[in-house]
Amino acid sequence: TCARDQLLAAALAVVVTGLMALRDTLHQFANQWLQPGEVRSGLILAALALLVYPLAPDTPLWQGVLNPQVMVRLVIVLLVIQSLAHVAKRLMQARHALALSALASGFVSSTATIASLGMEVRTGHSAPRAHAGAAVLSCVATMVQIAVVAATVQPQWLARLWLPALAGGCVAAAMGWWSGRGTAHLLASAPSAEAAPGVLPDAPMFKLRDALIIAALLTGIQVGVHLLTAWLGDAGMLAGALLAALADVHAATAAVLVRGGPDSAAGPAIASALMAALLVHACSKCAVALASGGWRYALAVAPGIVAHTLAFVGVFALQ
Hints:
mainly alpha
């Protein structure tokens, strides 16, 4: 090929020369920074993206509710998000560990993250305000994943959802930082803060089981909402979305968006169901915070949860 294409030959020569010039740096990276668990995760992700995804049938099944290739793409996207969060934790300093850990955990389940931080507060060994800030930061992941789910399941909605998701994410980030602005000082006095940046126990970049469970949950709820919609119409779609939102707002988002695009006949009903689902999910998170961490933790977490949800709903409703 290079004999027939001189431009390609020149480009490959530059690439090879660059790799040779960086061989010492790459050798140090592979031996001292990169961990075995991360190598295994990279191979799994490459296999899914290069082997499983192209071979998965791109055929909508059961009136378009199920598409094997879309399901595989959703798993890959979830794994990529977890991997990016893992890399961010490796690159940032240890004093940001609480906030980064909460943010990364939020990509798996923000509700579970809020509950976990609340249980730590209930033990009496953690400051409610610092953990509340980290809990609100986990909601940034919720906003990001709403946009990701929309782009994966029904890309037509992304044009309407990216700005509300950005507004909600910025509010969550700002209020999370404000609520936990003393976190860095608290962690700086802990012995673990003396660890070198990026030094973590050998661990994979993502949890494949969690991604598969989330993908299965989203698919199962899509099927449930489809059945309710076929039975009760728009009222069934709204009821299914609200029930799904009690557990996972991403599942509710996927379940309603798969019904059609923003310009379809079901578009207004889908938008209403999505906003209602987010409001119900916010109430669910506040209840979880109260049950897990007590009233002081809940009072510190609730304003951030309510504010970023109202920011999303407000911007979305005004479009």
